[in-house]
């Protein structure tokens, strides 16, 4: 038994030596980055160099202010290439370098041009990058485009705008809160991810207003949520409202019927989320608990290990 284990380890060591990133040095990669300035751009070569730069950054390698600035300005020249793969790498590089306010101006016009492009991939990624590197002043200039993107027909573009809104809510909440109407419209989207991101953003906008959250839950528990991911979020928000209502109301538990109805949902993730929510309610009665326990017991005989694991852990609690 010992011999195969040693051999396996030897093989693994041999494989590690063939890593394309093994032994790369920052100085050498910065020298390679000069290809960004070539009159005739080689998209494949440029993409390889950006990949190496991203690898160094993600490994914790620090770039001096001069090095970061030089790379940033060189990368901006790649906007002249029409290669879609290279453009995606450029977006990633700009986000990772996190340029200062002075440098952002250089790339803003290119990103704004991409944000209104006919290519959906350009629009989605440009929105993500702009919202990552922008400040409040620039945000007011592109706010109109972001509002339009939230209700865009393409789900990738809409999700990019909504996720950007979630991040921007931490830095410029007064601007994002003005998008409530568009976000509410996105909550009705047929695209699963768009509805999920829209519901998350709408809840964050309203989270400090208990009455607004209660109204949101009341309107959505009537069956307008199609996305299983959004349904799981709604179950969590509903549970929050139930806990808060428990301190002020007596008698029947509000929204319990909705949680119980989710136990009959088509998606297993929704069924489990509802069962877990019911078992964690304060002062839950045997009558309320029985349907959730029954569902969890059925999961114990599932062919999916993750469902069996989740059921055992929840039942144990």
Automatic annotation (TrEMBL):
CC terms in the record's Gene Ontology section: membrane coat
Domain Clathrin/coatomer adaptor adaptin-like N-terminal intervals: 27-317
Gene Ontology BP, a term: vesicle-mediated transport
Pfam families: Adaptin_N
Annotated Gene3D superfamilies: Leucine-rich Repeat Variant (1.25.10.10)
InterPro entries, per the entry: ARM-like, ARM-type_fold, Clathrin/coatomer_adapt-like_N, Coatomer_gsu
Xref: PANTHER family: COATOMER SUBUNIT GAMMA, COATOMER SUBUNIT GAMMA-2
Name used for this protein in its record: Clathrin/coatomer adaptor adaptin-like N-terminal domain-containing protein
Species for this entry: Citrus sinensis (Sweet orange)
């Amino acid at each position: 038994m010992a011999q195969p284990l040693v051999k396996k380890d030897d093989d693994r060591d041999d494989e590690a030596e063939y890593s394309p990133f093994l032994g790369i040095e920052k100085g050498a990669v910065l020298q390679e980055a000069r290809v960004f300035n070539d009159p005739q751009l080689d998209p494949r070569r440029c993409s390889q160099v950006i990949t190496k730069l991203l690898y160094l950054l993600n490994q914790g390698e620090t770039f001096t202010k001069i090095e970061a600035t030089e790379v940033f300005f060189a990368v901006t020249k790649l906007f002249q290439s029409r290669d879609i793969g290279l453009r995606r790498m450029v977006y990633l590089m700009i986000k990772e370098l996190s340029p200062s306010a002075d440098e952002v101006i250089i790339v803003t016009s290119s990103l704004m041009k991409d944000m209104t492009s006919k290519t959906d991939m350009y629009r989605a990624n440009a929105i993500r990058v702009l919202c990552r590197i922008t400040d409040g002043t620039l945000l007011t200039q592109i706010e109109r485009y972001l509002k339009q993107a939230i209700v865009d027909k393409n789900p990738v573009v809409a999700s990019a705008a909504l996720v950007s809104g979630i991040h921007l809510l931490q830095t410029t909440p007064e601007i994002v809160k003005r998008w409530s109407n568009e976000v509410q419209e996105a909550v009705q989207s047929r695209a699963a991810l768009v509805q999920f991101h829209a519901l998350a953003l709408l809840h964050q906008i309203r989270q400090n207003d208990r009455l607004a959250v209660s109204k949101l839950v009341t309107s959505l528990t009537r069956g307008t949520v199609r996305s299983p991911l959004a349904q799981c979020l709604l179950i969590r928000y509903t549970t929050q409202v139930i806990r808060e209502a428990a301190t002020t109301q007596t008698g029947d538990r509000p929204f319990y019927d909705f949680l119980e109805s989710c136990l009959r949902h088509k998606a297993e993730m929704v069924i489990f989320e509802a069962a877990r929510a019911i078992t964690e309610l304060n002062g839950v009665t045997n009558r309320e608990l029985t349907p959730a326990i029954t569902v969890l017991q059925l999961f114990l005989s599932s062919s999916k290990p993750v469902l069996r694991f989740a059921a055992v852990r929840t039942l144990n609690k």
